[in-house]
């Protein structure tokens, strides 16, 4: 539904290519992080779209929970699904390059060799839905408003911007604070531009169900709060013929129906009440899609492979809580999670165990540090665990039988060395000096997570810990608790891109350890990690970025901030056979905005029904 800090996936890009501009700077139709752009000036469309895709039809989708706002930029609200279709950005990313963006609202982007500023030249034809032109004043107002009134993420994401100003007719210039930060031009390119004239006199930091004025391919057509929202493709969309948009936004209507929970949502899909479903549950994927429409081909069950960086999902320790401040406790409790048994018995063998914060990519730290990575880590010898240099991190393994006695014995040994003891009579685990029992709560976003959490809890209880599980189905209540760090342990997911950068501050640095609403869910406050994040952001080239990311990854691994879960290298999607998609799937996976309504398939499907 909503792109939140918990699930936030930050896509980072940039580096100049084009023709000569002022004072040694470079300007062009796009920009990439370190190398050449794939698409030259004058390109017609992205390779992974069908430029001849027909327009028409409706794409119906489902979502569980509720919504009470059309403002997706602020904290403490339930934003409607699909709001990103309303607002265009300065640049747009290509899905088949790691770090590149091309002009959307901005027809040209200019940077100097040191990336100390970026200037965007806006297209004269760019318009909001009410017909008013998109101006530098709109860009400046949007940037300042998001930084002061938007959710806290923006303050960190834009924290290195020193000044924004109008730089001539149709131009906006962002000047950056001193320091290497090559991705900042692209970060600014991601800015969704909002209409200043619409928001003047309105409270931006409040939820609202007034359909906003946007500039994108779709506008809100109709809605009923908490039940559905329908978007209509604008026939007069100003950017429909731009190369970055050819072959995209093919449906006349997008509709999201809201269901009480994911169980009801799945049943609605099986009944044909909506068309497209992305499946998050391995169990449901393995067992719930054996229904007549799948068997006779009316519904396509389609795993679509991708090459995205997997990031990290795991049981996150809230180290703001005294019980988890001891790194030995965090290390020991990881031995109680039996991934191999869960994958075999609950997930039908679909997953790979996570061990890195950047799995499924070259950014993951493997083996022992060497080369440039080792040089970086040597600066911190004595300030990081010695195992950073001598051991490859691997999460505890089992044989999948469910018998984890050996692992629990290892956990007990670690706990005893850290001052904990198990009473031989009561089997209660307490701190030796204070006699305080090891006790905590695991917060879950609904009962779907209980089936792999409860076996984990049983193993923790065998260690003598007292663990409770609280499942919250009310998404607003769950979000409030997450944003205020009101939990002991939570299942967290840190998405990663092929080019990590500024968002790492939001994930791991001390500055965000206590700020409500950040993605530093584990409460990491470590000067070494702070320095490694800044070093990563300042990487001068791709090899440097890889080495610095691996150094950060390795230190995070040995900090035991999470008990790693798993990842999967394909998207599990199912859809009624009236949709078609392009032949090429880019590295980032399937691009739903490049699919289309297939009238011939729809007619055949109607006959089958």
Notable characteristics:
Dipeptide-binding Protein, domain 3, D-Maltodextrin-Binding Protein, domain 2, single chain, disordered N terminus, 18 helices, globular, 25% helix, 8-stranded antiparallel β-sheet, 609 residues, alpha+beta, 5-stranded mixed β-sheet
**CATH topology value of the domain at 16-199:** D-Maltodextrin-Binding Protein, domain 2
Helix content: 10-25%
**Largest β sheet strand count, sense and barrel closure:** 8 strands, antiparallel
Stretches where pLDDT is under 50 for at least 5 consecutive residues are 1-22
Which CATH-level-2 architecture of the domain at 16-199?
3-Layer(aba) Sandwich
Would you identify the CATH H-level superfamily of the domain at 16-199? Periplasmic binding protein-like II
User: Structural class of the secondary structure composition?
Assistant: alpha+beta
- Helical region count? 18
Strand content: 15-25%
The global form is globular
Quaternary form? single chain
Count of strand segments? 26
Q: Residue-averaged pLDDT, rounded?
A: 92
Q: What is Rg?
A: 25 Å
The N- to C-terminal Cα distance equals: 30 Å
CATH class group of the domain at 16-199: Alpha Beta
Task: Give a structural overview.
This protein is α+β, with helices and mostly antiparallel strands and 609 residues long. Among the domains are: 16-199, D-Maltodextrin-Binding Protein, domain 2; 312-412 and 489-567, Dipeptide-binding Protein, Domain 3 (Dipeptide-binding Protein, domain 3, Roll). The protein is built from 18 helices and 26 strands. Strands 1, 2, 4, 5, 6, 7, 8 and 9 form an eight-stranded antiparallel sheet that branches. It has a five-stranded mixed sheet with strand order 20-19-21-15-22. It has a four-stranded mixed sheet with strand order 3-12-11-10. The longest helix is centred in the last third of the chain and has 16 residues, at 542-557. It is globular.
């Amino acid at each position: 539904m909503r792109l939140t800090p918990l699930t936030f996936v930050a896509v980072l890009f940039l580096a100049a290519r084009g023709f000569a501009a002022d004072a040694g700077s470079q300007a062009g139709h796009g920009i990439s992080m370190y190398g050449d752009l794939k698409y030259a000036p004058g390109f017609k469309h992205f390779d992974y779209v069908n430029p001849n895709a027909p327009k028409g039809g409706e794409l119906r989708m489902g979502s569980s929970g509720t919504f009470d706002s059309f403002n997706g930029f602020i904290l403490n609200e339930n934003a409607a699904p699909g709001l990103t279709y309303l607002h265009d950005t300065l640049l747009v990313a290509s899905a088949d390059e790691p770090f590149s963006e091309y002009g959307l609202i901005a027809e040209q982007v200019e940077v100097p060799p040191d990336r100390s500023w970026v200037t965007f030249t806006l297209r004269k034809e760019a318009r909001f839905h009410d017909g008013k032109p998109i101006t530098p004043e709109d860009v400046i107002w949007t940037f300042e408003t998001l930084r002061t009134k938007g959710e806290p993420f923006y303050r960190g994401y834009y924290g290195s911007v020193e000044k924004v100003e109008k730089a001539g007719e149709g131009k906006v210039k962002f000047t950056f604070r001193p320091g290497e930060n090559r991705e900042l031009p692209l970060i600014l390119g991601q800015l969704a531009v909002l209409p200043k004239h619409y928001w003047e006199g309105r409270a931006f930091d409040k939820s609202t169900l007034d359909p906003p004025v946007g500039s994108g391919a779709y506008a809100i057509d109709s809605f009923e709060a908490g039940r559905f929202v329908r978007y209509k493709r604008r026939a007069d969309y100003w950017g429909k013929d731009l190369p970055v948009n050819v072959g995209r936004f093919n449906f006349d209507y997008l509709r999201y129906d809201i269901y009480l929970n994911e169980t009801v949502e799945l049943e609605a899909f099986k009944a044909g009440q909506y068309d497209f479903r992305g499946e998050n549950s391995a169990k449901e994927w393995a067992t719930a899609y054996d229904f007549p429409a799948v068997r006779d081909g009316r519904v396509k069950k389609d795993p679509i492979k991708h090459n995205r960086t997997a990031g990290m999902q795991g049981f996150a320790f809230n180290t703001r809580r005294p019980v988890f401040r001891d790194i030995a406790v965090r290390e020991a409790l990881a031995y109680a999670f039996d991934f191999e048994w869960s994958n075999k018995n609950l997930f039908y063998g679909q997953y790979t165990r996570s061990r890195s914060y950047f799995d499924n990519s070259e950014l993951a730290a493997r083996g022992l540090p060497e080369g440039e990575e080792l040089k970086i880590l040597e600066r911190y010898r004595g300030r990081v665990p010695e195992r950073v240099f001598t051991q490859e991190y691997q999460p505890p393994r089992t044989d999948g039988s469910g018998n984890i006695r050996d692992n629990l014995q290892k956990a007990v040994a670690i706990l005893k060395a850290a001052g904990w003891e198990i009473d031989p009579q009561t089997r209660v685990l307490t701190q030796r000096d204070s006699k305080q029992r090891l006790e905590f709560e695991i917060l879950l976003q609904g009962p779907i997570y209980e089936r792999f959490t409860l076996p984990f809890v049983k193993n923790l209880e065998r260690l003598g810990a007292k663990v409770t599980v609280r499942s919250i189905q009310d998404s607003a209540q769950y979000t409030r608790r997450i944003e205020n760090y009101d939990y002991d342990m939570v299942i967290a997911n840190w998405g990663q891109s092929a080019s990590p950068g500024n968002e790492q501050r939001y994930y791991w640095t001390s500055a965000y350890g206590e700020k409500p609403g950040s993605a530093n869910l584990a409460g990491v406050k470590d000067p070494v990690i702070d320095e490694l994040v800044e070093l990563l952001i300042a990487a001068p080239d791709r090899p440097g970025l890889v080495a610095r990311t691996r150094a950060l990854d390795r230190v995070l691994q040995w900090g035991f901030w999470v008990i790693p879960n798993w990842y999967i290298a394909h998207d599990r999607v199912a859809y009624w056979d009236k949709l078609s998609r392009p032949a090429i799937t880019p590295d980032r996976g399937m691009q739903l905005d490049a699919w289309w309504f297939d009238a011939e398939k729809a007619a055949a499907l109607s006959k089958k029904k």
